[in-house]
Amino acid sequence: MRSRNGLLAAALGCAVAMALLGCADDSQPIPSVNLTSSETTVALGQRVTLAWTTQHASGCSAEGAWSGSKAPTGSESVAVPLTQARSTFGLGCTQGSRKAHAEVVVTIAAPRFAMEKLPLGAAGDLNDEGDVLGYDVNDDPVVWTRAGVLRVDVGGPWCPPGGTVEPWWVRGLALNNMRTVLVMVHWGPNTDSTCLVALGSQPLPGGVLPIYEPRAMNDSLQVVGRGYWGNQLGVPPPLKEAVLLRSGLATLVQPIAGQVGNATVINDAGVVAGHYEIAPGGPVHLFRYDENGMTKDLGTSAAGAFPEPLGINAAGTIVGRLGEHAFRVRAGSSAIESLPDLGGSWSMAVDVNELEQVVGTSALLGAPDTWRATLLSAGTLYDLNDLVVDAEGVTLTDGSAVNAAGQVLAHDCVEDEDTVGCRVYLLTPIEAP
Questions:
Q1: Closest by alpha carbon to 373, among 395, 389, 406, 340?
Q2: What are the pLDDT digits (tens) for 277-286?
Q3: pTM for the whole thing?
């Protein structure tokens, strides 16, 4: 015997009765879906191909780590998110009021590295070609390349006064992908200059750059640092503000003029980050200057903590240190995130690449004076020493740079009663065994 609800459903039709009584649309076939991935474990940045088939489905919709409407049958190459170790790709398919769901999980494997010792006493920058800016045994700046070591000579058309005058010291600050080097040259008491030295074929503007304290440079030869409004050779600057130098012209990039500031990083799109005092002797805030010429105060997440951006990637993600801890501001966000550490009381993020990998340094838990080089990759923080193949006898203490290919520049620095000094290593990603 039919129930009263069943008789009503038959009389009205399930499509109407379902809204009143919650009955199922028994006239529609039950859909099914099968979803597969070409790989379930991948390296960071690797794509996968998702393929799916259905039965009795009129349409499908992607869920989880991908999105959009999908045909009932198909395949698609998709990017695996860079910021988490496990990503779930789901597919929901419907027929009338009925729905079927399937999902696959893709895991990003921990990176592995081969390690190469470089003939340098220290190093500070790494370009996307794998060239390294550092110093030789005489503390002179050089660029290590696969073809050999290139000297960074100043003088002549690049860095007046030049000629027969020997600088007291030369500091290599940045290396771009065309092998142009940004340097600061000290010629004597109160006499410094900022110059570009071309070790490749990139055309350069001649002479001294009108910037007092340079910090970084991009592939377009845009330079950022602390502004110098006066005679660079010898006269102390009357103002010290964060500036961007483009085609010889300085642009103020900090939110409030007249306060002490410094622009410390720049990417190839012209996005700049730095820090500045919001009032004379007052708190120091982070700021970002975007490619459209708009400046934004990012604030600070800790009262009295000094913030310093140290790295920026092509998308505009900023990393650095805020007080005694590493921080990150993601591209398109104004939120300052504290980054994980190895349990100690101090950490620093030094660089970030296009894969959102962050290199830096952290103190160990229970050993505040013991440092380890770190890599944050796919949301997981690693001690770099645990990722290197055949690293016996080496302890990487500082992560210094990471490039778009995932290569990492790191140091093994020793300071004890018998030894003081650093060894420089280039780490190149390899496939996990």
A1: 395
A2: 998 888 999 9
A3: 0.88
